Amino acid sequence: MRVTQSMLTGNMLRNLSQSYERMGKYQDQLATGKRINRPSDDPVVAMKGMEYRTNLTEVEQFKRNLSEVYNWMDNSDAALDEAGQALHRIRELTVQASNGTYEDGQRSAIAKEISQIRDHLIDIANTRVAGKYIFNGNNTTEAPVMADGTLAATANDNSVEIEVSKGIKVRTNITPSNVFSQDLFDDLKKLVGELENPSYTDEEIGDFLSNLDTHMDNTTAERAELGARYNRVEMISDRVAEQEVIASRILSDNEDADMERVIIDLKTQESIHRAALAAGARIIQPTLMDFLR
C-alpha cells in the first residue's frame, strides 16, 4: 500500500489528539481525586457509585434522626428526674404535716409550698423542646395541661416514632398519662386544700402518702422504660456509625483515584507525547518553502 504524505500527517494528528485526550483524563483525575468524572468514563463504576452514594445519604439521614431522638429522650429524662424530685419534696412535706407537731400556720406554709410545686409540675408537663410539647403525644403544638392543672382536651398518649435505621422506628416520647395524669394534679390540689383547712386531721393528711407513692412509682417506672429504650438507641447509633464508615470506604474504593498511579500514568503519557511530537517532526517532509529559504 502506498503511504502518502497526507496519510502520515493525518495519522500523526490523530495520535497526538488521542495523546492529549489521555493526558486530559489524567489531569482531571488529579484535579478531582476521582477515578471517573463522567458516567462515560466507566458506566459500571458510575452505576455502583450512585447506589453507594444513596446508601451513604440514607445513613447520614439516620444519624440526623438519631440526634432528634436523643434530643427528645434527654429532655424527657431530665423532666422526669425533675418531676421525681418534686414529688419527693411533696412527700417529705406531707410526712411533716401529718406527724401531729405542726401548728395550723405551719401547715398553711406547707400548703403554699406544695401549691408552688404543683405549678412547677404543670410547667414540667408542658415542657417544650425546639418549640414542640414533648409530653402531649403526637400533638406537639398544643400544651397538654392547662394553667389550673386540668388536662387539655387535645392531650393524648399517641407515640412519636422516628426511623433510626432501615425499617426500624423508635418511639421517642413517653406515655404522658402515666406521669402527668389528672389524678396527680387533683390529688395535689386536694392535699393543698386539706392542709389549709384546720378541720382535717393528721391521719387524713397522712392518707395522701399512699397516693403520692403511687404517683412516684409511676414516674419511676416510666423513666425506667425510657432508659431501656435509650440503651437500645445507643446500640443502634453505634451500628449506624459503623455503617457510615463502611459506606464511605466502599464509595471511596469505587470512585477515588489512586493518586500515585495516576501521576505515574501522566508522566508516562507525557513521555509518549513528546516522543510522538519528535517522531512527527521527522516524518513530515520539508515543504517547498523550506527549499526556497
Structural description of this entry:
This protein has 293 residues and is mostly helical. The protein contains 8 helices and 4 strands. The protein has a two-stranded antiparallel ribbon. The chain is rod-shaped, with a radius of gyration of 38 Å.
Brief descriptors of the model:
293 residues, two-stranded antiparallel sheet, 8 helices, 69% helix
List the helices and strands and how they pair.
Elements (H helix, E strand, L loop, with lengths): L4 H28 L10 H55 L6 H22 L2 E2 L2 E2 L27 E5 L2 E4 L10 H15 L5 H5 L1 H48 L3 H25 L4 H5 L1
Antiparallel strand pairs: 1-2, 3-4
Helix pairs in contact: 1-7, 2-3, 2-6, 3-4
Brief characterization of the structure:
By secondary structure, the chain is mostly helical. The protein contains eight helices and four strands. The protein has helices at 5-32, 43-97, 104-125, 182-196, 202-206, 208-255, 259-283, 288-292, and strands at residues 128-129, 132-133, 161-165, 168-171.
* Overall geometry: rod-shaped
The unreliable regions are none
Give, in order, the helices and strands: HHHEEEEHHHHH
Name the helicity range: 55-70%
Class by helix and strand content? mainly alpha
Distance between the termini: 33 Å
Major sheet size, sense and barrel closure: 2 strands, antiparallel
Rg estimate, integer Å? 38 Å
Strand content: under 5%
Beta strands, count: 4
Mean pLDDT value: 90
Strand order, main sheet: write it out. 1-2
Q: How many helices in DSSP terms?
A: 8
